[in-house]
Amino acid sequence: MRYHATLKRFTLTQDELNRAAGSAMYALRSIKEGAGMSQSPHKRGVALVALEPCDHAMKGVIDCMAAVGVDLGGEWGNEIDTSEEW
User: In whole angstroms, what is the distance from residue 49 CA to residue 61 CA?
Assistant: First the structure.
């Protein structure tokens, strides 16, 4: 990321965004693996009380990437396919 003085904003290259998205997908994959979750998209319980710490960790990664304009493919980790390595 660089600050562009003339435009008065930060700029990111496509390569930088790809690396960030790849790192986020790796983190989601690792969280799922550690929690024994499926890497494929799947449904989770309806009640929010059913959320586990791994769900909150994945949500943090997803929200962090969304804040910089990167859509990982879902709002919650269980909605995102991490079966293929980046």
Answer: 20
Residues 6+ apart with CB under 8 A from 56: none
Amino acid symbol at 2:
R
In a domain, 5, yes or no: no
Q: Is residue 63 part of a domain?
A: yes
Beta strands in 1-86 (DSSP E): 2-4, 9-11
The secondary structure element, H or E, covering residue 55 is helix 53-67
Give per-residue pLDDT as tens, 26-74: 999 999 999 999 999 988 766 656 789 999 999 999 999 999 889 999 9
Q: What is the pTM of this model?
A: 0.84
